């Protein structure tokens, strides 16, 4: 039984800036809510829109002082890095196609970055960012937020401790239906626009969450990938559904299914992992429960905050069991780990073993996965090398 | 389909103070997280403990300036009411037995109050607070937090609009097991101590949530109550389980079951309401779903943020469907409605129809319910008058 | 892990007759299907209707030879008891009001009886049948069929073996909606007719299943009962909903809720039993699963045929786990136990410890429960003595 | 709302014989129970074992007269076809490798056949049986039993009527764990023996159920198949897990996952079908429910016997809603359709539109699917032609 806790950063709050988050943006508000919950940082700067007027309006609403509301990210990176009270990190929530340049601008000015996934349009770009992060010893987070759930962290710990033996089969999916029809006719959908989204819509937007989640939880490395990308909605240029078959190093195999045309589904990310000794099953839409079966025993329902959980789950539990935590808490956990790492690094402390978050390299891994799927699909689903990118 | 939104108060932030929330306190942190999520107010004062040292430590950690960290609530009420930048409202999270005096002190100084449930030890105390609130035209919230969930608000709207016809039967419960054993031997449990908790433990702590929730959702008024309060754990003075039978005005009937000894249960608040035309069912532990059945049709699963929801649910939805919201969001909704009401009142605006929250009178209703249950149980479960208290 | 088995009676088949089961009857066919599944007996006689023509038609369709199709049950009892190849037992599936006389007629001729519930209109009648059964050492089954499910039998065994400690609270219900409207206007509904159904509709028809199930599973004896019977549908003479509060000997308490007006519910019999060491939960509509929680551990999902089940469940499992068994198998289990007992008795063998079925005394217990509920409700829900009937 | 019915064949019972079903056999008993439930036929002959003594023992226990208990299937086919009261059909429940010869023997003697799946070891054998069936105008059933569930039949009807629009994606699986360990060391497991099981264990045993179910429900024809067959348990010769990617004619795609090493899973056959207008989801382990979502509406839970079901479900519903039907009822439905078809044919009546069952050609389709999967897997998962076999 885990006691819920008020998980807030020790020490003074950090300062952060935002790139993105202008009128109509949703995701920026979610990043901010996650940071607010953990009380680890305050928003103090931002470039909320390429339109200076819009940027000013959004920034004022967020309580940012006018002199730190910028009309371009370049200007912001330069100005903030020059201030003694400049931002400690920047949050990037713009469309995929702009990530690389924005992140690079801040990294080059020595500013830590938290960026939406997918990290960039090409693997080379992603690897370039990784090198810059390492070169300057900065902290870079790619917000694969679903890894922030306590039970996901428990799943990782459980599998690493041999709780289900050696993994044999992974079944993972992410089913939505928001692109089941031709939404593009009535509103702007940058995700289906190759210029802004890159080579893939469905795999890039949600398939990459599957890849990240499975790697996070199982530690498995992909060996080979075969994929069938489909575009079901007429007139669309990019994929809206993918069937991916994965062979991992060591013999395990897996099916991934991301879909944006799965009529009747909302945000159905789930994974099921079957090992020699047992299995686990988790669904993002009801994240406070996890099914765990050991061979020869009836399955048990682990509950967030409940019994038989390890220190990893305990570290990230805010509410007692039965008091549901949602996605805001997962965001908070990611940002708490990230901000704590930044603080620890400044104080010369080692990173806490539980304060993990998806890194730039995880981001590069994700971008390569997207390209691997696209390449296989274009080659009539031939196997392609799915190994992690090489720096 | 409801778009998730960044629900934050318009206009400048309010200032609030906290009474309670010292070392080891959990619930104060939850109040604060709810307020943080909505960005409606900042903590600026507090009396965090009767021990001035502990109060100072907790207050500093919360970022409150030292001159506004108080050693007694009386001192705090006096000082804050005298400041031009004094708090706009106070949050009271102390044990039940102290609510009345603390709330009165702030009300009498003209300060709005948000107080944990149950509101007070006696109905007379509660009614006295109601009169003071009304006398000064203040805003008073009793934090029956579960009414903050979007689907609970939808249930209320649905029933009021005749969605299930006339209510016939209500089945509601709140099942926990944290008092299944003699916890009192190893730690301080003020809820089982009559001096601090009042006449009831189980009904006072969680039975009152059932009463509030059912009234909130159905609008039904209780006519008569019959109750069996049990104390299963030896040596305990107050009840740890109750079976309550309710007759409502108009002929509907209901069973309420609060329990703190329901082995294997975590925080199982649920209600099921059966009417002439259909029924609804909701479980707090999975608050993003609601079962809705219309007579002659298969049941549907309404999802938070999903289809077929009305404006009440829409008003309080922060995340898109499939992105689970938890209890923090429910707290935020309560505080958003409360803070907005305070601001509107100052600006002479009428209260928004959706910005409802449990009031002092709801609190008085809850206290009377607790006493009615105790009275019936002491009279061998004879029917007692369960009507709402009379001012 | 339990192997599914082909559960069929050893030795030659018994012969049985049917009273009831004429045109439009449903339940007689279900009895027959249950017997067919177990291959324990063949239908060889019957009085299928009071109308001789209808009786002949139904009997011929069932393959009964014409000389053993009777126009009255009295004639049938007399003739069958006189034949050397007469029936070994009779199945009675007529309306409640006729059970007593029919059962008595067969018992007095030395013929074993299997009768639908409730056993009779009055407790005295039921006790009279018990005495006749015992006087002649016959086998009498009252078909509380839900006790035939393997997981129900496991629940009984588990509780008797202390698996959840001492029972504290029982929550049981049976929710249907087939009488939510005035069905009587368009078809014949004998269950709402006092002449045919007796003093109660809802408690008599399904409340009695709750009482039987809880006693079967827990072994608890009722001490006192308080009930609120309601008639929600205008013009109806008998109850269609009941709220029952039960105090058991030894201090446990319970809520029973039978309803025939629970809009949106189908056949929702369920029980939840909370003890000092754990709890179980079972729902008839998904009978192949049972939730079991031990204090301090996450809950487990026991599956029919799966792991951690005892010999009682094993004895009654026909299909391997994952191959769902339904209500037909529960009927078969009841009849297999009953027929095996008849055969064993003839061979002077003791009854097998697993071959249990609801007896005439269980039937009497059920009839008294119905009357106790009615008596309490008529006395404004005063407590009434709910002890088992005394022979 | 569908009324449950006593579904029994009209007219006199048929006579059937059994090949297989000796000591230790389980599946033969299940066939028999299904036939018993529908009362369409009586067992009157059999070759229960290759060992005449064992055959005699099993036959006697089944009530078959000694002169119709045979020591070989050939002898049985010859003798029964020569009798004026010979069997109307034979049930074949022997290991896969023997199906072809046994079926052929009976077909050639003009006797109808019901045979376990997979139908034969090779597609050629299966097609040969199809030709013989057609040549003699006999009725041949391959017992893909899961198609017998009422809600499965409703799914088929719903999709054919456009209820979910054009199918885009199919996700289907069959997860078990009975071969997760090396069971072969301690008992005889013919399914993992290439001589008896053929080219595949997992795909042949359960993958073929997926293929049959998806075709039955959707009517989709496979165009191309890519498969990864794995053998996870050391020392095993055949596959125990398969990942199959399917492209259907017309552009739909699907993932099939049969596994016998999915630790913690029992008999998890399920399908989810996503179309342009909605989706359905069904799980064999809880067959009385089906999830149905129409685009733009919340999902509904269809219940067997409940609302919004069509005539196909109604035709095969035995129990009212809420009274769970299990696998026995599905078997009964298959045999009821089969026996009724035999009777109708004799009387020159056309086959009833609802009385469908898996045919010899469905069996051939299944055998080809197994071989296609094996061929693709052996070719490093290259696409293979997955079209139905050509007569």
- According to CATH, the homologous superfamily of the largest domain in chain A is Dihydrodipicolinate Reductase, domain 2
Structural class of chain A: alpha/beta
Number of domains of chain A: 2
User: How many β-strands of chain A, per DSSP?
Assistant: 14
Specify the number of helices of chain A.
11
Main sheet characteristics of chain A: 9 strands, mixed
Most extensive interface, chain pair and sizes: A-D, 42 and 42 residues
* Mass-distribution shape of chain A: globular
Helix content of chain A: 25-40%
Tell me the quaternary state.
homotetramer
* Poorly predicted runs of chain A: none
Q: Average pLDDT of chain A, to the nearest integer?
A: 95
Q: What spatial order of strands do you see in the largest sheet of chain A?
A: 13-12-11-10-6-9-8-7-14
Per DSSP, what share of the residues of chain A sits in E-state strands of 2 or more residues?
15-25%
What's the level 1 CATH class of the largest domain in chain A?
Alpha Beta
CATH architecture of the largest domain in chain A: 2-Layer Sandwich
N→C terminal distance of chain A: 43 Å
Radius of gyration of chain A: 21 Å
In the CATH scheme, what's the topology name of the largest domain in chain A? Dihydrodipicolinate Reductase, domain 2
The secondary-structure element order of chain A is EHEHHEHEHEHEHHEEEEEEEHHHE
């Amino acid at each position: 039984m885990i006691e819920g806790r008020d998980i807030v950063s020790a020490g003074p709050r950090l300062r952060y800036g935002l790139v993105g988050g202008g009128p109509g943006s949703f995701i920026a508000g979610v990043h901010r809510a996650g940071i607010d919950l953990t009380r680890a940082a305050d928003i103090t700067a931002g470039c909320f829109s390429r339109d200076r007027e819009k940027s000013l309006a959004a920034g004022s609403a967020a309580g940012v002082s006018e002199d730190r509301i910028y009309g371009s990210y370049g200007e912001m990176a330069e100005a903030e890095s020059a201030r003694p009270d400049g931002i400690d990190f920047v949050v990037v929530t713009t469309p995929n196609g702009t990530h690389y340049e924005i992140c690079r601008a801040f990294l080059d000015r020595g500013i830590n970055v938290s960026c939406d996934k997918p990290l960039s349009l090409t693997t080379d770009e992603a690897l370039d960012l990784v090198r810059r992060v390492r070169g300057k010893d900065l902290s870079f987070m790619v917000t694969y937020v679903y890894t922030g759930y306590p039970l996901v962290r428990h799943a990782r710990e459980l599998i690493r401790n041999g709780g289900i033996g050696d993994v044999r089969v992974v079944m993972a999916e992410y089913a939505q239906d928001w692109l089941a029809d031709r939404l593009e006719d009535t509103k702007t959908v940058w995700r289906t626009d190759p210029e802004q989204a890159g080579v893939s819509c469905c795999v890039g937007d949600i398939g990459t969450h599957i890849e990240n989640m499975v790697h996070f939880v199982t530690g498995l490395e992909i060996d080979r990938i075969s994929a069938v990308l489909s575009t079901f909605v007429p007139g669309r240029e990019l994929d809206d559904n993918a069937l991916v078959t994965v062979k991992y190093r060591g013999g395990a195999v897996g099916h991934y299914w991301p879909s944006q045309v799965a009529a009747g589904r909302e945000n159905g990310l789930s994974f099921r992992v079957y090992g020699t000794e047992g299995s686990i099953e988790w669904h993002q839409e009801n994240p406070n429960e996890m099914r765990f079966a050991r061979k020869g025993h009836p399955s048990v329902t682990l509950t967030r905050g409940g019994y038989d959980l390890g220190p990893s789950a305990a570290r990230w539990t805010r509410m007692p069991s039965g008091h549901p935590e949602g996605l805001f808490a997962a965001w908070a956990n990611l940002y708490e780990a990230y901000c704590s790492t930044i603080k620890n690094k400044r104080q010369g402390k080692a990173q806490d073993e539980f304060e993990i978050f998806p890194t730039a390299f995880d981001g590069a891994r994700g971008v390569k996965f997207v390209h691997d799927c696209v390449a296989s699909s274009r080659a009539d689903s031939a196997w392609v090398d799915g190994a992690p990118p090489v720096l």
